[in-house]
Predict the structure.
Amino acid sequence: MHIVSALFIDTFEMRQAPGPSTRIDVTGVFFSLAAPSAVPVTIEPHLMALIYCQPEEKGSGVFEVIFRDGFSGDATQLARNVSPFTVEPGKFTYRLVRGELELLKYGPIFAHCRVDQEPWHIVPLTLLPPVG
């Protein structure tokens, strides 16, 4: 299995399409956000990952996300989420993770994502100073 895409989002909706086929309507993809107040601050961004299972694969795995204050794997861990999942071989699934991140400074953080022990897929998010 592998991650096809991972993004920070506001919302999403699933809908059927002819075929039968499924559509995912994603709204509010973002890579930065203004802090709701001055630091220190807690933010709770939603990370959505789309995962594909090849037809010959078993259809079960573990999705892991580690939010870090840097790009490298040895950067400080801010939060971690691990969740087992199943998906029909040859199909897609999604995982939605809400990070609860206590941040002491503005700047980038990185969601390090992977399925089982596969290589990391890294998604950046920049915390900006509050507006106004």
